Amino acid sequence: MKTRTPYARAPRRSRAPHASRALAVAAVVLGSTLLASCDGNGSGSGSSDTVTVGLGGNIFDVPIRLADKGGYFAKQGLKVKYATVTASTGTSALQSGSVQFLNDSPTSFLSALAQGLPQTVISSDAGGNPLGLVVTTEFAKKHDLTADTPAAQVAKALVGSTGGASSTNTKAQTAVFLKSYGVGPDQVKWVSLPSPAADKAALKNHQIDWFTTSEPTPLQVQQSGDGVVVADATKVPAWSSAKVGYTQFIAASNSYLRQHAAVARKFVTAVQQATAYMNAHPGSSTVQSAARQALPGVPADVVKASMTLIDWPTSGAMSASGWNTTLAFINSLDVLPRKAEVTSGDWTNKYLP
């Protein structure tokens, strides 16, 4: 039997000093690259993070559009894509990760919480309640109603009339308006319609006498000569910002926030800067251009008038008292399956600058 001779092992050689330095430099470069790749959504240092935000296609999209158009996102190193969502699809889009941020209403957010979905509100970007109640021109003439008619007189004139309702929320808010002036919601007839566009068509075809929805639709109807806006938040205390609390929020899923805190901070910083600019320069060409981008096809003067019905805050910070006001108002509408509740863990200001 032959004995296997082991291979001879070469003597160990020491590395030259310049080779050791080269390896050290390479290790530092590699480490820096790995750290950069872990930032945000995995982009390297000096590159932009790309995020998708869910928008409802309404006037509350303006701060987001301005943050993009005005370069605020770019300054934060963000590239933003958009996805159009509805009240029923926005929450699921956030949970699935198809959008990273959602410009959300308090009703939708509270509905998500009621379902046990792990989401957090990280900023507020609008206040107020830009509702408008528009009646047909014929109804306005018959009851001697104008844009300046006191809200109490408008409510009384609606007794026995037929109104359109394209959402439980706007129907409930119209009921709040009526009840605040002694008119019961059962003293009017309601026609359920699928959308504000359907409201508008039904009004023009004289299938209904009036409807309530968020601007700019009512003002568009008025501009076309088919109706008169006889009630809005400037005339109806029950619709005022002080009564309804916060109106629009930026929400994100808890899992996304745990992994991308830096990106969330950049996003809300850019939106806050844009909203503060809107507050100081509401009539500027940049703001109005962003507003028209958010509301394509809406006449410029209607867009401008609609913008005045919303409070654009200089800060996205929220407070417990503000949330209490919001909760009280939404619970008074009785549009959720059960009473809405919010804890301090459901919203935070920590991502704000």
From TrEMBL:
Belongs to the bacterial solute-binding protein SsuA/TauA family. Keywords: Signal. InterPro entries: SsuA/THI5. Pfam families: NMT1. PANTHER family: ALIPHATIC SULFONATES-BINDING PROTEIN-RELATED, TAURINE-BINDING PERIPLASMIC PROTEIN. It comes from the Bacteria. This is ABC transporter substrate-binding protein. Its main location: periplasm. SUPFAM superfamilies: Periplasmic binding protein-like II (SSF53850). It is found in: Periplasm. Residues 63-283 form the SsuA/THI5-like domain.
